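Task: sequence design from structure.
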């Protein structure tokens, strides 16, 4: 299978569209920031613009592996664990850590996506997708992230835009 070379995240659609050689290969529901879009450090917003996958974390870990500080805690998410830590922002299964590509927009200074620790990461399956609820990251269900992760090489382009993508939302996957 040809690796994906572009992930396009539509804030309006709350969808990730994966492309390989210009062909739409993947469409997944996501959840972006509850606070909307924005690039400033501490904003809790999802950054816009062109990014790249700077690091791929979690290969080989079990589905539901709990990650804190980009390291596996040794825990696997469960309802019981969730009940013990109800306020935790769960980062599960895998991380695709983003780095901005546009100096002054999403790279360097107070708008640096990488230093803001903005990821694509797993979230518990009972968490709703298709609605903005994150603290800035892009959340996916673990099964979807397990499908996506092996198709995304380091340095894969990631574009995050506010606009809806009706043609891609309705298009057949290639």
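Answer:
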């Amino acid at each position: 299978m040809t690796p994906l070379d572009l992930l396009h995240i539509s804030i309006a659609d709350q969808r990730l569209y994966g492309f390989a050689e210009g062909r739409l290969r993947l469409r997944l529901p996501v959840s972006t920031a509850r606070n909307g879009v924005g690039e400033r450090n501490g904003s809790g917003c999802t950054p816009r613009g062109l990014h790249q996958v700077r690091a791929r974390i979690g290969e080989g870990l079990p589905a539901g592996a709990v990650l804190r500080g980009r390291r596996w805690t040794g825990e696997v998410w469960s309802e019981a664990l969730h009940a013990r830590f109800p306020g935790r922002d769960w980062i599960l299964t895998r991380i695709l850590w983003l780095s901005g590509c546009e100096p002054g927009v999403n790279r360097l200074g107070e708008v640096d996506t990488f230093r803001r620790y903005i990821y694509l990461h797993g979230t518990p399956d009972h968490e709703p997708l298709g609605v903005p609820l994150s603290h800035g990251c892009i959340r996916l269900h673990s099964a979807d992230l397990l499908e996506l992760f092996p198709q995304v090489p380091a340095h894969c382009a990631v574009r995050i835009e506010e606009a809806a993508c009706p043609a891609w939302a309705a298009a057949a996957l290639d």
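The chain has a mean pLDDT of 97.
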